[in-house]
Amino acid sequence: MAPTKKVILHYFDLGSKGCGEVVRLILRELRINFEDKRYAYNDTWAKLSKTYQEKGLSVAGKLPVLEMDGHILSQHIPLLRYLSRSAGNYDGSSSYDNWLADAVSDIYVDWRAAMPETLKALKKAISERPNVKEYIASRL
Ligand SMILES: N[C@@H](CCC(=O)N[C@@H](CS)C(=O)NCC(=O)O)C(=O)O
Fold first, then answer.
1. Residue 23: left (phi > 0), alpha (psi -120 to 50), or beta?
2. What residues does the GST N-terminal domain cover (predicted)?
3. Do residues 63 and 12 lie in contact, with contact meaning Cβ atoms separated by under 8 Å?
């Protein structure tokens, strides 16, 4: 499948918890006009995922996928790096600067990897406590 000239972000309509939401955010931050193709995150995705794999839009059958600069790009963290580099705002001028940018980026990777478990634990803790506000306040 040949990518279009337009910038198109393919991602779910998942809200802030979805890994592609940060790609939406950075596109907006950089004021890049893009078509925001949103998909339902439900059992309709399995069929579409297969079609997109066959068409070469999504190698792994997952989203986000960004069509940009004549490429079909995937993987949300490399996408963030790509967009930041394109804006001249990622790498520094030395190996140390580059390490620093990668290290900060990888803190996000660690945080993101822990997020599902953290949210599950928070949900459980809240459901076990009748006074949710007090519970949260006691943790701050
Ligand atoms: N390593 C990929 C993972 C992408 C991923 O798992 N996307 C999820 C939504 S956040 C997805 O496509 N789920 C549907 C599926 O697995 O079929 C990335 O970082 O972009």
1. alpha
2. 7-91
3. yes
pTM of the entire structure?
A: 0.84
Asked if residue 19 has its Cβ within 6 Å of ligand 1, the reply is: yes
CB 4 within 8 A of CB 10: no
pLDDT in tens, 28-61: 999 999 999 999 999 999 999 999 999 999 999 9
Domains observed in the chain: 7-87 (3.40.30.10), 95-138 (no CATH)
Cα(94)–Cα(100) distance, rounded to whole angstroms? Answer: 10
Both tokens of 117, joined, read 């478990």
| Distance from C-alpha of 63 to C-alpha of 49, rounded to nearest angstrom | 9
